[in-house]
Design goal:
The strands form two sheets. The chain has a six-stranded parallel sheet with strand order 3-2-1-4-5-6, sandwiched between helices. Strands 7-8 form a two-stranded parallel ribbon. Helix 2 crosses helix 3 and helix 2 packs across helix 8. The chain starts with a helix and ends with a strand. By secondary structure, it is an alpha/beta fold. The chain is globular.
Amino acid sequence: MSPGSQLTRASILRHALAVVNEDIPFPQAALIGCSVVTGAGAAINTAHVRPGDTVAVVGVGGIGLNAVSGARLCGAKRVIAIDLDDSKLEAARRFGATDVVNSGSGDAVEAVLGITGTGVDHAFEAIGLPVTQQLAQDVLGPGGTAYLIGIAPPGTTAQFGASLDSLFAQRRLQAVAMGSSNIQRDIPLYADLYVQGRMDLDHMVSQEISLDEINTGYERLLNGEVIRSVITSF
């Protein structure tokens, strides 16, 4: 291996590692590198949610709950969680949602308009389905932006309205990758926020499992029974 290739590999490894606060437990720390940086980062880094803004989060699984948490940290006035599952909506309240909307129990758009009057400034879609991507756009107020966080199946096409009303409203659609995160900055930040009691990661760890239980863990995740399972024994 040439010296140049060694330097390149060392540089890649250096930028892939982050040192975190030693006081954070392993299960909570394990979550930061994926769902936390993706969800919270979308609110903090991509959207730059500001104090007084209004936010909707469509889909409050692990990533959506972190988007709720990130919006709360930014000082959003309203954080509206939207989902089909009442247990997930109840969890969203623990993470900072001020309002919850079950989209299977009525018109979610009308519900959001009833809460905000004009729609939200920021809508985060954390599922990756055309119907929820459209819902994120439909709940926007004038000048609002819908952020697509959820990974859609291959071949999925997101649509954006181009009617005269939509054009005058100047709404925007933006894709988000990993919460626009700077890993070496953000991962230590979230660990510190947890240790300070400002970011809830405890309720995100639904269960600790062994490596032998990984298939059961995935099944429970797909069935909506857990937020996250963390492998802590090997």
